[in-house]
Amino acid sequence: MIINRQSSASPSGSGGAKLFSINTGLFKLDGGAMFGVVPKAIWSKTNPADDNNLCTLAMRCLLLQDGDRLILIDTGIGNKLSEKVLPYYHLHGDDTLEKSLAQHGFTPADITDVFLTHLHVDHVGGAVAKEGGQLVLAFPNATYWSNQKHWDWATVNPNVREKASFLTENIIPLQESGQLKFVDVQEGESFTANMQVFFVSGHTQAMMLPLLQYKGKKILYVADLFPTVGHLPIAYVAAYDTFPLQAMDEKRTYLQQALENDYILFFEHDALNECCTLQQTEKGIRAKDVFKLTDI
C-alpha cells in the first residue's frame, strides 16, 4: 500500500547512517515473569537468577545518526521513579542515558527525534525528567514519536495488566509539550532514509520495531519481541506479553524473516549479549554469532 508520510519524517541527507549503543543502566525482574510457563531449570541456563529469582536485564537504547537527524530509539527508565515504585526495579550499574550520550560526544540537546517503540516505563521513562519538582522534556529540541494506535491503547482506557507500566508522568508531558507526533507509516515503510518501521502487537498493541541500514547490514531493534537471546525459542514468551499466542506467531514470523534476510538482532534487554546473527538448528532458529555493535 502506498501511504503519505508526514513531511517531518521524510528521508533526509544521504550516505550511510551511524549507530551508537546507548546503555542506560541495569534492572531486575522476576525470572518467572520473564519466561512465563517455561520452567526455571530451562530458562536459567541462559538467564541465571539471583537468590530472589530475579534476572538482571539491560536497558539498552540505540542512537541513529541519519543525515541531519539524531534519533534516539527508546530512553530507558529514567531517574524519577517514586520511592514506592523504585524498589520493584532494583536499578543498578554505572551507566546512565546522559553519560552514554556524552561518551559519543552528544548531549540531550543534540537529539532531534526520540522514537518510542512503546510506552512501558522502562522504554519511555527517560523521555521526561524532573527538575526542581517540575516535569520537563529530557530532550528539549526533539520531536517525540509514537503511533496513534499504541498511544490510544496506553492512554484512553489502559487495561488492568499494563496500566501500572503506563505512568502518567512519562506520557502526558509529551502530549502537553506540543512536541509529540505520530508516525504515519504502514508496515515496512520508511521513517528515514536508513530506517523502516514494523509493528507487532503480542507484547502490547502496536509496538514498533525499527529496521536499520548500517554498514551494508540490516539491524533489527527487537525491543520486547525478543527481550534477550534466551527468548529466541518461539514458546519462551514473558508473562508481561498481553497476547502471548500472538507474540509467538510474531516471533516465528520475524525469526524467519531475519534468517532469510541476514538481519542482525539488536537486544534492548539482554545484559550480556548486544547483537546476534541467526542460524537454523534442529531445535529451531537460534543465535549463531553474538557480538557488540562496534564489532560490525
CATH class annotation: Alpha Beta
Tell me the domain tally.
1
- Strand sequence of the main sheet, in spatial order? 9-10-11-12-13-14-15
Q: How is the biggest beta sheet arranged?
A: 7 strands, mixed
Give the CATH topology. Metallo-beta-lactamase, Chain A
Instruction: Please provide the count of β strands.
Output: 15
Provide mean pLDDT, rounded: 93
Report Rg. 18 Å
Question: Architecture, according to CATH?
Answer: 4-Layer Sandwich
User: What is the helical fraction, as a range of percent?
Assistant: 10-25%
- Ranges with pLDDT <50 over ≥5 residues? 1-14
What's the N-to-C terminus distance? 33 Å
Structural class assignment: alpha/beta
Task: Give a written overview of the molecule.
There is one protein chain. With 296 residues, the chain is of the alpha/beta class. The chain has one domain (16-295): 4-Layer Sandwich (Metallo-beta-lactamase, Chain A), CATH 3.60.15.10. It is built from seven helices and 15 strands. The chain has helices spanning 31-35, 40-43, 97-103, 121-124, 148-155, 168-177, 244-260, and strands at 18-30, 54-66, 69-73, 113-115, 128-131, 134-137, 143-146, 180-182, 190-192, 195-200, 207-214, 217-221, 263-266, 275-281, 284-291. Strand 5 and strand 6 (134-137) form a beta hairpin. Mean pLDDT is 93; it is low at 1-14.
